[in-house]
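#struct-help
A.M.: can someone run this one for me? Single chain, 120 residues.
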Amino acid sequence: MKKYSLFITFLLSITVGIFTSNAQSKHTDNENIISLIEKKRTYNKNNGTGYRIQLYNGLERRAKSIRNRFQIEYPDIYTKLSYKAPEWKVQVGNYKTRLHADRALNKIREKFDGAIVVPM
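D.P.: on it. Structure tokens below:
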């Protein structure tokens, strides 16, 4: 009977040790996951992520004209005019997901038919 009691005590101590180590490893895994998520958020803030809608890519005069027309039609949407040799780009909006950008694109295409979604 004493051997049986000793054996059960041994099994219980091993079982408790396993559950304790699993709980600690899960806690450590959760901390690692949280740390990675924070690093990703920091990276995204510094490098920019998401999508914009590009209305035009070409000559300066036409780009400025399209930007002005867009600002009149949609005064609440952010517009960006940029130059990368040899062309000017008119991009609008700041959308976190492709789905949001595509939804906005459907509305914008009613008045600006050449618009496309581009990553930031």
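A.M.: thanks! The longest helix spans residues 2-47.
D.P.: also worth noting: The longest strand covers residues 87-95.
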